[in-house]
Amino acid sequence: MQLTAIAGRTVWSLLILGVVLAVALEFVGRDTTYATFPGARGRIAFVSDRDGDQEIYVMNADGTQQINVSQSLGGDAAPEWSPDGSSIAFASSRTGDLEIYVMAADGGGQTRLTDSRSGNTTPSWSPDGAQIAFAGSGDIYVMDADGSSPERLTSGQATDGSPDWSPDGSTIVFSRFNDDDSDIYVMNADGSSLTRLTSGPAFDFAPDWSPDGTRITFVRDFDIQVMNSNGGGLTNLTNSQELENTPSWSPDGRMIAYAAPVLVDPPQPGQFIQNVYIMNDDGTNRTNISRGIALEGRPDWQALAAGDVNCDAIVNSIDALLILQYAAALLDFLPCEENADADLSGTITSIDATLILQFDIGLVRNLPP
């Protein structure tokens, strides 16, 4: 009886897989469709000098599979995943000047976007992926994602940096450095309606919007803080004064990645080690995940689309095939299993695969958010 049931289930699963494969083959060569909604957390991009100069690495959220993706002779910094998780914008001094570049998630197709020789850095994608904000010459600029049509949004005596686009695309938060302090400001995406969110003698910098737009994490005097998007409800998450910096939300809003120094025993003269950590959004469960004997930091978390179960930033029939195999117990795990529950039912079934197929061939515009 049990063997008959197992055999029947296997045959049924293989029949379904055949249908999925036929659909996949039918649409080979068609332009890939990207999801337009946020999903679970993917890989983390970060900077490390473990190879002798600053390079962009990517790793899984548990610190495994660390890969140098920039592989250049110049200093690379400030990686920022595109909204669809397929590309990384970053700053590089490989030509002598600090400029904005973009590359594929695997490091391919590295392309220079700016050529202003004004120290361009800290790129931030608009939520629709059409534009990139960045800092240059002490001001905030925005340009099209291909580097065209640059426009200056801020000006004045202060030094502005670290822009980050709000999830709804309407505003940009950034740091403003004055002579004796630094504060967090927000403005409309066209540079209008400038509003100061923090004040006082503290040194506030490196803001990052939460995925739902309700909170902003930032650094105050080298502790990781969180506040409401209007500047209220300030909470110190680390409260250690151990030089923590550059926080970045996970795409599901449940965790924050950041950089912090690592104490070496015994201390080595002139050696400063900084690694990438993750913690819950309430500051608990702080974990070192990069663990390099190097200066590492500036993490940014990749957003994967719901339905992207093989972590390739694409939602298509291959994901549906993998889900069906998993649901039929033909696979023991999925690389990005947290993205498999497309119908938000709490279980992974053939219904999830069906929804993904419908999305892939254009029968539905979006999977459930």
Low-confidence spans: pLDDT under 50, at least 5 residues? 1-15, 19-39
Mean pLDDT reading? 87
Beta strand count: 24
Distance from first to last alpha carbon:
41 Å
The ordered H/E elements are HEEEEEEEEEEEEEEEEEEEEEEEEHH
* Morphology call: globular
- Helix proportion range: 10-25%
Widest sheet: strand order? 3-2-1-24
If you compute it from the alpha carbons, what radius of gyration comes out, rounded to the nearest whole angstrom?
Answer: 22 Å
Main β-sheet description: 4 strands, antiparallel
Q: Report the sheet-strand fraction.
A: 25-35%
The total count of helices amounts to 3
Derived from helix and strand composition plus strand pairing, the structural class reads: mainly beta
Topology, please?
Elements: H1 2-26, E1 41-48, E2 55-59, E3 67-68, E4 76-81, E5 87-92, E6 99-104, E7 111-112, E8 121-125, E9 131-136, E10 139-144, E11 151-152, E12 159-165, E13 171-177, E14 182-188, E15 195-196, E16 204-209, E17 215-220, E18 223-228, E19 235-236, E20 245-249, E21 255-262, E22 273-280, E23 287-288, E24 296-303, H2 317-327, H3 350-360
Antiparallel strand pairs: 1-2, 1-24, 2-3, 4-5, 5-6, 6-7, 8-9, 9-10, 10-11, 12-13, 13-14, 14-15, 16-17, 17-18, 18-19, 20-21, 21-22, 22-23
Helix pairs in contact: 1-2, 2-3
